[in-house]
């Protein structure tokens, strides 16, 4: 087989505000690889099939001196994130050609790997699209299930408010809450997204761009649980309309990722209403809930009990634009990059 282009999406500079495709990231097609002859040195060659685009990637676009829970991207190196790939060749007994692997992938077409332990071999007995393992049965689904189980202390008849309800995490939380008999209020950023939120079970769904979050919560609350994906003024409204002993699950704050932070003005509500606030990183809960999740949740998705929506972008060269769309809320559903067919 003749050498083929091994395209990569490189991190070029730390952005101010939103990342700029072609400037913050750049697609590089200068590398070549021969999949049949490239040296494996005891490792295995993986062909990348799909890659995940997630809001937290913006936080990795920072200087190395700025500390956080996830490592920063290195200048002139490929981005990395969750992905699914197929083993092309292997000299490692832990994996064989044809195995589909889930784990952290470089944003490039082919990679020689050495550590099989960092990947999960996907059986996919349910026959789900491989991209589903980046969304509803991947990290976003894990995020929803693990933290809901750990922190919600949900009781039938309670009310939950889910921000960013049309995203992969929010939509899953809505369905978990409805299955437990809760009233669900959910926000989204367009009328189309609002309709999707209703379709997965929200009792009250609204467009936060055209309706007042505070007025909706005043009418439909008080809220016992707030699942926070956005922070900022929405968090402020949730605090204002929280019930006594309410629980706030702090999953993300996308409104703060690309602009100056919004200073929430009513934090005293945490004291006066005796609220519980739970921040978390999904990896910290994986040991407790991961085995059960992968044993049972894919079947619930395959049966149609748990619904999901994807935003599929074709081509690694478009990954920079896809991330910008996610950060601006221009995607609809879980954003995945389809890098290659089998």
TrEMBL record:
One Pfam entry name: ADH_zinc_N
Every Enoyl reductase (ER) domain range: 59-337
SUPFAM superfamilies membership: GroES-like, NAD(P)-binding Rossmann-fold domains
Presence of the UniProt keyword Zinc-finger in the record: no
Single Gene Ontology MF annotation: oxidoreductase activity, acting on the CH-CH group of donors, NAD or NADP as acceptor
Domain of life: Eukaryota
Keywords: Oxidoreductase
Protein name: Zinc-type alcohol dehydrogenase-like protein PB24D3.08c
Keyword check for Repressor: no
């Amino acid at each position: 087989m003749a050498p083929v282009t091994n395209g990569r999406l490189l991190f070029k500079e730390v952005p101010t505000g939103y990342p700029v495709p072609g400037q913050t990231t750049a697609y590089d097609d200068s590398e070549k690889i021969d999949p049949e002859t490239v040296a494996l040195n005891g490792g295995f060659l993986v062909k990348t099939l799909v890659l995940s685009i997630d809001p937290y990637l913006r936080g990795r676009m920072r200087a190395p001196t700025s500390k956080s829970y996830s490592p920063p991207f290195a200048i002139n190196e490929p981005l990395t994130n969750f992905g699914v790939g197929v083993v092309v060749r292997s000299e490692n007994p832990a994996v064989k050609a044809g195995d589909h692997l889930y784990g952290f992938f470089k944003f490039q077409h082919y990679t020689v790997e050495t550590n099989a332990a960092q990947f999960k071999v996907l059986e996919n007995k349910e026959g789900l699209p491989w991209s589903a393992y980046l969304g509803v049965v991947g990290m976003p689904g894990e995020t929803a299930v693990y933290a809901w189980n750990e922190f919600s202390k949900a009781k039938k008849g309670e009310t939950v408010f889910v921000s960013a309800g049309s995203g992969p995490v929010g939509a899953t939380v809505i369905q978990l809450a409805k299955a437990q008999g809760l009233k669900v209020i959910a926000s989204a950023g367009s009328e189309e997204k609002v309709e999707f939120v209703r379709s997965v079970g929200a009792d009250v769904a609204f467009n936060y761009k055209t309706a007042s979050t505070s007025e909706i919560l005043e009418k439909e609350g008080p809220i016992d649980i707030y699942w926070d994906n956005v922070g900022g003024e929405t968090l402020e409204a949730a605090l204002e309309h929280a019930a006594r002993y309410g629980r706030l699950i702090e999953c993300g704050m996308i409104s703060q990722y690309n602009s100056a932070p919004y200073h929430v003005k009513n934090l005293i509500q945490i004291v006066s209403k005796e609220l519980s606030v739970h921040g978390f990183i999904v990896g910290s809960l994986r040991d407790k809930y991961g085995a059960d999740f992968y044993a049972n949740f894919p079947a619930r998705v395959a049966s149609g009990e748990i619904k999901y929506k994807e935003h599929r972008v074709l081509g690694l060269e478009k990954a920079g634009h896809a991330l910008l769309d996610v950060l601006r809320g221009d995607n609809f559903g879980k954003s995945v990059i389809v890098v290659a067919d089998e």
